[in-house]
Design brief:
The chain is of the alpha/beta class. It has helices at residues 5-25, 38-48, 61-66, 80-96, 111-121, 132-142; strands spanning 28-32, 51-53, 70-74, 100-103, 127-128. It is 50% helix and 12% strand.
């Protein structure tokens, strides 16, 4: 299915409105992401007009998340310390009503990742961002149905 010019214009207008809102409100987004993506994520948020913070240390992450507008959890670099920080960050977000996004990177490749993602899903992410293989693995592990969309050309 091909998008009409009116549909493309509507999408562009909606995207511009979101970007205007980000620039006007300068939300702080706390990210626990993989080591490779930290700089990219921070720069993308800065370019959009948001304010990034990136710590994952369990001893301080709750303080950072408490004043954030959103939390992004990415399983790209997974170790016990980072996983503990993720759980504390999500608990802090939940106690303040701060939405969180879970990116279950490569859960289909490792049982440790899959089990970790399942434990984080139990904490109620507002959005799960993944690809088809990740959603399939999660659906099989969690006993649910996965639905996803792709770009329309």
């Amino acid at each position: 299915m091909t998008q009409s010019d009116d549909e493309k214009t509507a999408w562009l207008s909606a995207a511009a409105d979101v970007l205007d809102s980000i620039r006007a409100n300068r939300p702080r987004v706390h990210c626990i992401t993989n080591e490779v993506a930290v700089t990219y994520s921070a720069n993308a948020l800065l370019a959009a007009g948001a304010v990034p913070s990136m710590t994952w240390q369990a001893s301080e992450v709750a303080d950072f998340v408490a004043s954030a507008s959103a939390l992004v959890i990415n399983l790209g670099t997974l170790d016990p310390g980072r996983l503990e920080g993720m759980h504390r960050a999500i608990q802090a977000a939940g106690s303040k009503g701060i939405p969180f996004v879970l990116d279950p990177v490569f859960v289909e490749r490792s049982l440790t990742r899959l089990h970790s993602a399942a434990s984080l899903i139990e904490l109620g992410p507002d959005i799960i961002r993944g690809n088809a293989a990740e959603f399939k693995a999660l659906a099989e592990r969690c006993g649910s149905t996965a639905a996803f969309s792709t770009a329309v050309h």
